[in-house]
Write a structure and sequence with these properties.
Helix content: 10-25%
Distance between the termini: 53 Å
Radius of gyration: 23 Å
Number of domains: 2
Oligomer: single chain
Number of strands: 20
Number of helices: 6
Mean pLDDT: 89
Structural class: alpha+beta
Strand content: 35-45%
Largest sheet: 10 strands, antiparallel
Shape: globular
Length: 324
């Protein structure tokens, strides 16, 4: 089972009379809580989750393991990492050996198999008075179809509301990085193109219907032609006002791409609606232990290297446009 990595940027938005995007290297105080910088917030969040808890609504057991060696800095960013341990319960099942097909045990309804998932948070350092840093980077390691990103982001958001009167949001690192990583992850399998067009049926006009929704599905993309097609798709995806034109001259304003990422799995993205999606990439097998889990002795340095590459390409400031 392959180790994966979900890569997102993130920010905090503080609501209220003086609503704003929080500076990640600036102190924040709300009621009796104060953090000197965002790293302190994440350190506090990880600390309160060290004790295993039962999440009844999610049917999960959950806790976070911390280590002082997983906290540090480079010349470009400060970072903190942790290991999330999570597992589902609620279904009684027998356990069989995949080779011998013999029953080797069972899991009771109130038991869960716990799996470790690393999370890595990086806060950029470079900051000026006119360009405050309010976007950071967060990486979630996964294992096959299993991961802990959604539940952990939900918990971070709840903690931010309680401690800073702020909400936590994830988004893509940059449009170009997201689209290139998406098409590099697998092979293009299918395109769904849709557009609104004026109905040519007179009965529609009489009924008050002036347009129809047209949908077209394309598949079988091979060789150099596929690469050229992908370049056009990336160009389309980078311009939210663009239309995608086929050889017959028909233009479509909505394009959804599906790629085959192996092992019978697919990933589908609307090429004009991916702002809140994460980049997905695979972690090389050299950072994996024999049992399939990430190697805690090497994974942090790998995540640090990936963060370095992404931060160099990321806009670290949310530019607010005043409306009057």
């Amino acid at each position: 089972m392959s180790l994966g990595l979900y890569v997102s940027s993130f920010y905090f938005f503080q609501s209220g009379k003086n609503s704003c995007y929080l500076g990640l290297n600036s102190p924040v105080q709300y009621n009796d809580t104060q953090y000197s910088q965002a790293i302190d917030f994440f350190e506090a969040f990880f600390a309160v989750r060290r004790t295993m808890e039962t999440l009844e609504s999610e049917k999960k057991l959950y806790y976070i393991e911390t280590n002082p060696n997983w906290h540090g800095e480079t010349d470009k960013f400060s970072y903190i990492a942790a290991c999330i341990h999570s597992g589902n319960y609620g279904i009684e099942s027998d356990i069989y050996d995949a080779t011998s097909h013999e029953r080797v045990g069972s899991i009771e309804k109130n038991q869960a198999g716990m799996v470790p998932f690393f999370v890595f948070v990086a806060i950029p350092k470079k900051e000026t008075s006119t360009e405050p840093i309010n976007k950071g980077l967060i990486l979630f390691q996964s294992m096959g179809i299993y991961g802990a990103k959604s539940i952990t982001c939900k918990m971070i958001n709840e903690f931010a509301k309680d401690k800073m009167n702020a909400t936590f949001h994830t988004c893509n690192v940059s449009p170009s990085e997201f689209l290139n990583a998406f098409f590099d992850l697998g092979t293009l399998k299918r395109l769904k193109l849709t557009r609104n067009r004026t109905s040519e049926d007179n009965s529609d006009q009489l009924s008050g219907i002036s347009y129809a929704r047209e949908e077209r599905v394309l598949s079988s993309f091979l060789g150099r032609a596929a690469n050229t097609f992908i370049e056009r798709l990336i160009h389309f995806g980078l311009d939210k006002s663009a239309i995608f034109e086929l050889e017959n001259g028909i233009s479509y304003d909505n394009v959804t791409a599906t790629i085959d990422i192996g092992d019978g799995k697919e990933r589908t993205v609307n090429l004009h609606k991916y702002d809140n999606l994460s980049i997905l990439e695979y972690i090389p097998s050299q950072y994996e232990k024999e049992n399939g889990h990430a190697d805690e002795n090497t994974i942090i340095s790998y995540l640090c290297a990936r963060a370095t590459e992404y931060i160099e390409k990321m806009d670290m400031t949310i530019h607010v446009i005043s409306r009057r």
